[in-house]
């Protein structure tokens, strides 16, 4: 616990310096005084930790006012998202105000799921709705990357209305899946016009949350599942990510924001959401009654893709060709992203035409590369074929 608290203290100090130093385009005018003050303040935290073994919460208490006072925006959101990705289960269980509450959002603002409020938020609401689900240690604002947003582009090209899920990615996938299923039920019920077609696009862990939501909806007899026409996965670790099995977050937070980079140090106290990515756990039974840090074999039962839904899987391969090594996007192996498994009963039945691999891309590139968007647009077009079949990919 002392080691964990020191790790939290280090990242809180790094985040404080990054935020407090001022804009980079102005040369970070406050960096020197902030560095001096933060060294004094956090040196005290480390001293207390060494003497009495202070808790993680003692260090986190220093971060809450800092983020509360900072101006809202993508950088603040990146810090909160990374913190929740690594420690979100602890934040929620201790009632910490930094814990993210699941919301459907648009433009970074939470949506009130009443017909009147949704009509005001979407005066041109259509019958086709796309819900975008972010990955671990990210937020809904991460869908806008390098000037591109898959949701906004699909709204322009296909006439769909995009809505974005914002959630605490440190919670178990199955907990988030049930909550997401409940939100979708309210969204479809209260949408200003009758929903004819619902599409979910999910990146990374978001795909596990989406599959879990479908499973929960089927068990509960939720009405929104009958509206679900398309389910597209971008770099989802359907059968796990080796980096989690090694107990290392590696570059999970990197490439998003300088503010989130320090959180990559905290692999040893990683959250339930992160450990769920060891094998791609999506149900309660996958983790209940087990030590989530304990190694061992994959004990999941097969969970097929939802019936009657067009399901698509995109993977990225850092190698220049699809056949080349490492056959991974740096975090998720291509086989895992395409649902392939050594056991036939565990393989997800994406048809060959509903699979795509982007060569020379990494995990985060799936959010912004034009090639990825063109594949999505083609898949989701009205004239697209490829209703899910039971044929397993080769």
Q: How are the strands ordered across the major sheet?
A: 2-1-6-3-7-8-9-10
Strand content bin: 5-15%
Structural class: alpha/beta
Task: Tally the beta strands.
Answer: 10
pLDDT below 50 for ≥5 consecutive residues: which ranges?
1-7, 19-54, 247-256, 385-394
Quaternary organisation = single chain
Annotation field: number of helices: 12
Q: What is the arithmetic mean of pLDDT?
A: 80
Tell me what the structure shows:
There is one protein chain. By secondary structure, the protein is an alpha/beta fold. Helices cover 38% and strands 12% of the residues. The chain contains twelve helices and ten strands. The strands form two sheets. The protein has an eight-stranded mixed sheet, with helices on both faces. Strand 1 (103-106) and strand 2 form a beta hairpin.
Concise overview:
The protein is of the alpha/beta class and 394 residues long. Helix content is 38%, strand content 12%. It has helices at residues 2-20, 31-52, 56-69, 74-93, 115-121, 150-158, 173-190, 205-220, 242-245, 272-276, 334-337, 370-380, and strands at 103-106, 109-110, 128-133, 144-145, 148-149, 161-166, 197-203, 228-234, 310-317, 355-359.
